[in-house]
Amino acid sequence: MNEPILRPVMPELDAIRGMAILGVLVYHGFYVMMGPTGFSHGQRIFLTATWPGRLGVNLFFVLSGFLITGILLDSRQRQDYYRRFYLRRALRILPAYMALLVILALFRYPPPFLFLSLVYLSNLAPLFGIGIAYSVLWSLSVEEHFYFVWPLIVRSISNRSLLWLSLSIVAISPFIRWISFQHAHDYTFNEYTWNSADGLACGAVIAILVRQRMDDRTYLVRIVCAAIFLAVLFAPFAVVARQNKMGAALQIVPWHFLFVGVLGSFLLIGTTQWKWLVQGRVLRFFGHISYGLYLIHSLVFREYDRFVASEGLWDLAKRFACVLAVATVLAWLSREFFEERFLRMKTKWVRAPKGERVPIAD
Questions:
Q1: Do the beta carbons of residue 48 and residue 58 sit within 8 Å?
Q2: Long-range contacts of 95-103 (CB under 8 A, 24+ apart)
Q3: Euclidean distance between the first and final Cα of the chain, in Å?
Q4: What angle in degrees, to the nearest 10, is found between the helix axes of 290-307 and 81-106?
Q5: Tens digit of pLDDT for each residue in 104-126?
Q6: Distance from C-alpha of 287 to C-alpha of 308, rounded to nearest angstrom
Q7: Main-chain phi, psi angles of 55, to 5 degrees
Q8: Global pTM value
């Protein structure tokens, strides 16, 4: 017998987190190191093939939009709606994030950038004439802006209005990116919150739709098929040259639809006898430590590059293996001996009513 689609604990979502973080590490480990020279044609093909790893951030956005919207919808009638949400988010996000900022200060990262990061404006640093000195922090700023605004919206409007709003964000975001790109000399505009909102909105759409027909598996299959169809329909934009600004504005769109299909498929398979296919231990482990691993891996790459030169593909492979091992250990230690102290407070301070169906946003 199949399990309910929405459960308090959904291990397949940790597997998706694992896929996302490993993709980001592969991208930073290989693609970003591809210079104009030093690699053969075959090696450059391999390095180019690691580019989609950067989309792990967008997969995180879709997953976050799904989980956060679900939590807010399921707790909408609670008297402690805002307190509960923000306290749980603060206990999950702030300890490791603040610890990282202290570490970056010790490593002499620019104080103006650290200040903007402290107030979650790192993705908007170029607007202040400041470079994004630690690249991974931009996506955390986008998510924090989502956390600031979305609870008020969810509490204030009906599910139907929320669905139409989310769909409107998905439709309008590419045009906002296109307008931004008209005035950009590069694509740092892509990291501004208003240019990155459609991934979160895609996750919100599936969260709302699944709750319209709770545990209707046929309905979820249709959502998955529709998402994959749209991904195929927009697929040409996924490979368009970035010199074409409209193409660049639409480049991420098919990937967002694909990630909605992946999320829905994992929910379907993860509630059947075939759940082992989407609940692998390795991916779940990396999903479990994904937050700390995302925060720390760029710093470990930087420190490795300070002491070791990587001049060929074999050197990059060694670099990736070493950084993956060190960053994984650091992230695991952070999760088990630092972050868990605060996560236990979520259970102690903010208890859910017995039987409440709330997906865990970890």
A1: no
A2: 95/338, 95/339, 95/341, 95/342, 96/291, 96/292, 96/295, 96/334, 96/338, 96/339, 97/140, 97/295, 99/334, 99/338, 100/295, 100/296, 103/299
A3: 27
A4: 10
A5: 999 999 999 999 999 999 999 98
A6: 29
A7: -75, -5
A8: 0.94
